Amino acid sequence: MINTRNQVVKLNGIKLGILLFFCSMGSAVLAQEHHQQKYFPPSDTLVQNKLEQWSDFKFGLLMHWGPYSQWGIVESWSICPEDEPWCERRGPYAQNYFEYKKAYEGLQNTFNPVNFNPEKWASAARSAGMKYMVFTTKHHDGFAMFDTKYSDYKITSPNTPFHTNPRANVAKEVFDAFRKEGLWVGAYFSKPDWHSPYYWDPYFPPMDRNPNYDLERYPEKWDKFRKYTTGQIEELVRDYGKMDLLWLDGGQVQPASPGSGLWKGKVINQDIKMDDIAKMARSYQPGLIVVDRAVEGPNQNYLTPEQQIPNKPLSYPWETCMTMGGSWSYVKNEQYKPIDEIIRNLCLIVSRGGNYLLNIAPSETGEWDSAAYVRLEEIGAWMKLNGEAIYGTEPIAPYSQWKYKAQEWMFTSKSENGEWVVYAILQGNYDLGKTVNLDLSELAKVWSVRRDSLLPADVAAKAVTGCRAQLLGYAVKEEKLSVLGEQKLTLPKEVAFQVRKVESVGPRGSKIIRPESYRDMPAALVWKLRFE
Asked: Residue-wise over 213-224: b if at least 16 C-beta within 10 A, else e?
């Protein structure tokens, strides 16, 4: 994933064609956007059932972490010799690639996250309403955050100071902590490995993200890499407890095709026999969801638009992965998205039928920024009131609706006790204690079609005559509305100002505490609509 200061992009799903795909987690650059690829539904009923459960979860956590957190830089990409902004090198070694790569890989020798406490992360994620977690067991740089026997470039190596810590097998500790909190766990794993001599042969200088040798000329070397990759994945699915997702990155590693491994005119047959890997993984983890990102085929069980939200629902399972701040990896004094923006992204994604995978990056000492915990607390408070409008829901047209250029409505729906209910989610500028307008005419038409689909064949359909609207989480009486034209909904009363203490870091690292006045304004309001 690219660590430019990102912006959320709303995409018009079907019509975008082939775009320049900037993926800092390593997908082919000139490839179809994730959500535009052809989808191959799984035939395994266990996978189908697990996908159905996953699609109801809606909200998950992604974590990028490795020795690079010590420099506060983009994960892996600065050692990739491509002339792209996300590969920029900085610092005293920047002008010499080989000196830089040596210093970067030397970060292993000082990586000692002594404040590592995955139970605190897991508790915060659960309280925020997250239902699953994906952790970077290995990024493209090849550093393993688990105890692999296939490499010494790992967290448990004697070369890594943290190896003496009883919790040195970080991935195991993370997975165990999140399982105990009731979350599903997923292993992010990079297929390309820029530390492996079987991917970047040290005899040749690397040229780009692809192997730096001719795979057709040295097939035995590529076969060693294939076995190495298969072996590491087998370790993860065999030795690390129940695994729910295998989230594979690096879309250039795939069999040759018009969209595979394409970079500056090169197509390379990087076949690691993914079908065999998926079969092996499911022999240990029946029903495992496999996400072979950006690789069109049966091993991409759901699609993953990155930092993007489609404008309309997609016809297959999908998940938007997005940063809470501006970077996938840890950056000191990171500016995190405000709660309003996070909740809006969540509601937009869910109103289009997707899941929201929100990234938080631990620091070099093994801690999250305190601001990340604040955001999760705010998300959790909102979800406690309004989670029923998120979990287990489906999209319903018109999906969203703008009013007066400042008020945005988003819609979800679900079947409740044999009856379709609709949730209308409001965000934007509005005055508490007053009213807002909502046009129910299109919603009523779509709802009636859904209602009629549940009726027995011999029962005649009836016209929709009205709607009952109940604001969630506030002492506002249920309102009866017409379905013709715009209707007025009553907003809760004005919220009083309060004072809280805010911590920040001074220019020399000192802690600064200052008072701040605020109003605990809702990030979004939700009405439950029952049509009659």
From this structure: bebeeeeebbee
